[in-house]
Amino acid sequence: MNKLEIDWTRCDGHGLCAGLLPDDVLLDEWGFPVLRGREITAGELPDARRAVLACPALALRLNNR
Amino acid sequence: MITVEEIRVIGEARVLAGLDQGRLDLQRHLLTHGDQPQLTRADYTNLSEAVGLRGRGGAAFPVALKLQDLPARGVEAVVVNGSESEPVSRKDRLLLTQSPHLVLDGAVGLAHALGAPHVLIAVHDPAAALSVREALMERDDGLAVEVRETPGRFVAGEARAVLSALEGGLAVPPGRRVLPTRKGYHRRPTFLSNVETFAQLAVLARLGSRGFSSTGLISEPGTQLLTVDGAVQWPGVIEAPTGVPLDTVLQYAGAEPGPVLLGGYHGRWLEQTDGVTLQRPEVSAGIILALGPATCPLGEVTRVAQWLSSQSAGQCGPCVFGLAALVDDFARLTVGDPQGWHDAHRHLGLVPGRGACAHPDGTARFLTSALEVFDDDVQRHLSGRGCGRPVLGLLGGAR
Ligand code: SF4
Ligand code: SF4
């Protein structure tokens, strides 16, 4: 089970993740990500991994439990 | 400062036993409570499970589960969280200043049972720190017991923030959700709980599960400490059996009629008090605030919101921006701006679950229940006439 997670102490609202994963991340009125919270399917994993690597604050994570 | 007159007991005095005569030094402590029996780790786990003991800091996590989650060996420390960061709460300061040996018995007894070499007591109140240091000079526990002063900010009392401060770091919660039982003090397994939990453990060790269960609820027997404040004649700390009716406690404190905030600044408003009984998790850290009929509820709530917003550790965007926005929404709502009402509802949906700690969630819970319970007042304010009452500042909050 893969889900996106955000370390809020790191995220500084670049909003990059919302651009890369428009189906999973929206931005609130302050520019911080709102996660849809759904599971990332196997087919979407590569895109999700790319977004995690692209996050300049190392705040976005993929959690599998 | 708590004076002796501000201590009241409904039923049997347990953790507050002997305090009607003032602070318990070692001699008076032993006369009142007797020796702390030496128990094993299995004893503590079984006893805590038998009486359903829950942490008394607010999260109300079962103590037995916390003990079971610790590894079989290598427990580094037992940490007494005495930061009591809810500004209204006074029960932990009361225990540390008046009955420090009971708390120490609980912590040291458990540390011996767990084989933990350190006991750390985190406090931010100077009088409490002094009292514990004085108590430590009277006893010889055969392990390292240390009193550490930690910052008194609201979020600094969160368990992981306390651990960070004890390690010399900033008193803020880390970004990752780690369990102190696995990675606590210096990333080593740690048993951390609130001051009252340790006092209850010391009582439980002495009474055994049957004696402990002679009062209170079947599901969570024993007593609890409550801090009562607001529109009451006798504010202070009350020891009462678990499951006591809220109305009984309000009567004891001489509360004026009106809505009651249960569980402190992260708690919930109650419009009605009859039929409500007090137990965990609802009662949280045991704070009961009576609003009374004379003050403007929305004004009071806005002041608390301001204070809560100022206490955000400033780490997480949605918490920092969201709580500030909510303060502004409530202020506008109070002066009759309907957009404030709409914005408040939207923002209340945007903050929960979006921070490194439960501060945004707790604040949203408090404000959401205020909008529900004070709906009539909200309508009156929105009609532009206000409720005609001054803001007395009965709940504390921003000054
Ligand atoms: S890209 Fe990273 S820092 Fe930027 S909003 Fe997304 S999670 Fe936050
Ligand atoms: S959620 Fe708020 S109070 Fe908690 S760590 Fe983040 S900024 Fe601080």
Automatic annotation (TrEMBL), chain A:
Pfam families: Fer4_15. This is Ferredoxin. It comes from Kribbella kalugense.
TrEMBL record, chain B:
InterPro entries: ComplexI_51kDa_subunit, Nuo51_FMN-bd, Nuo51_FMN-bd_sf, Nuop51_4Fe4S-bd, Nuop51_4Fe4S-bd_sf. Its cofactor is FMN; [4Fe-4S] cluster. The keyword Protein transport does not apply. GO terms for molecular function: 4 iron, 4 sulfur cluster binding; metal ion binding; NADH dehydrogenase activity. Keywords: 4Fe-4S, Flavoprotein, FMN, Iron, Iron-sulfur, Metal-binding, Ubiquinone. Residues 302-381 form the NADH-ubiquinone oxidoreductase 51kDa subunit iron-sulphur binding domain. One of its GO terms (biological process) is cellular respiration. Residues 50-201 form the NADH-ubiquinone oxidoreductase 51kDa subunit FMN-binding domain. Belongs to the complex I 51 kDa subunit family. This is NADH:ubiquinone oxidoreductase subunit F (NADH-binding). It comes from Kribbella kalugense. The lineage of its organism: Bacteria, Bacillati, Actinomycetota, Actinomycetes, Propionibacteriales.
